[in-house]
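FAQ
Q: What does a multi-component entry look like?
A: The components come first, one per line:
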Amino acid sequence: MARIVMKFGGTSMAGIERIRHVAGLVKREAEAGHQLAVVVSAMAGETDRLIQFCREASSLYDPREYDVVVASGEQVTSGLLAITLQGMGLNARSYMGWQLPILTSGHAAALIEGIDAAVLERVFAADGIAVIPGFQGVTEDGDVATLGRGGSDTSAVALAAAVRADRCDIYTDVDGVYTTDPRIVPRARKLPAVTYEEMLELASVGAKVLQTRSVGLAMREGIPIRVLTSFDDRPGTMVVGDEAIREFDMERQLITGIAYDKNEARITLTGVPDRPGSVASIFAPLAQGGINVDMIVQSVPRAGQRSDLTFTVPTASLAQSRDLLEKAREGVGFDEILTDTNVVKVSAVGVGMRSNAGIAAQMFQALADRGINILAITTSEIKVSVLIAEEYTELAVRVLHTAYGLDAEDAA
Ligand code: ADP
Ligand code: ASP
Ligand code: MG
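Then the predicted structure of the entire assembly, as tokens:
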């Protein structure tokens, strides 16, 4: 007998027929004798629809009320799955975030502060199945909160950690983690396993198959994640620690995967004075405004001249960034603020980078061969990212996928 948290994404929960299918998967695990907590997402498209209602109601909506609205999608599916499981003769019941409770702080992208495992332990002891809406928690004041887009993954991993589950199974609409988004590269290969560290980097640079926070939490808590599809019985991908990885994947490549992120915008400040403190006085107000600056490039000025400073911010923070920079302009003394949202960040991730030189050079060459211009670069120990024009997204991802030898063998 194992203790398993099963999480079903929006596509798996989209409509009664699919919910019935999900219930069948839960029943199968229950009949195998496992203890189960099931975390569900809202039906596919529902959270988008609810967010749109908030925007239409007021462009400056209150995050507390936003949470009240968007948390409802998961409430519906958790109730429906519990009803369906009961109809199959199983001892299932839904538990809202406030009933466990899943304690969170903040609104709209709330952080999980703690989960009380007592209720779930009682459910397990009584051979019951708990169905829990993903994405939602409750604040100290008793208000409903949500965890940010894709947050049901984090709910599932946090619950798995709270009840010390043996595994967290994330059922989604693809049958595992691929070398890149299989929806844009048909030659993408399914990975038998990835390390937490690689998955964390991949998710943080755009591979949204798992919410980044869920991977960080699984890594800290040592919870093995299995990513698989609810649509058939294919084996899926294990997300595990460094020690366990060889057990699942003997033939690891230097590069694990390629990801892209269109949610970054480029800002260039021209004529930045070449003196100590210039750059600090540009980034200080952005930091105070809570804006995450990602890539940064500064041109080297000739003696006595000024430089240009280019960096990226999340597209959603562009207007606020512009505002803050406009206010700082006189004090810093730069000329112009230029912005561009038609950019994409493409990244290659792999622990093999640690021991192999030339991975970045290979990336730059492959892009140059296709005439793709690089606007900015960042690197970490296991990642290289470049900023390019958005129109080249698919071409760049495909070219890099081939250049790093990631294409599936049976691909033409
Ligand atoms: P869910 O609703 O189940 O949470 P998501 O849409 O959040 O599903 O995540 C699954 C999607 O992630 C897939 O449909 C796929 O397009 C996308 N994706 C991006 N990068 C990858 C990758 N490297 N491997 C697998 N899927 C990926
Ligand atoms: N329904 C929420 C969203 O779409 C949470 C999730 O599905 O993970 O972001
Ligand atoms: Mg998701």
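Q: Is there any commentary attached?
A: Sometimes. For this entry: The chain has a mean pLDDT of 94.
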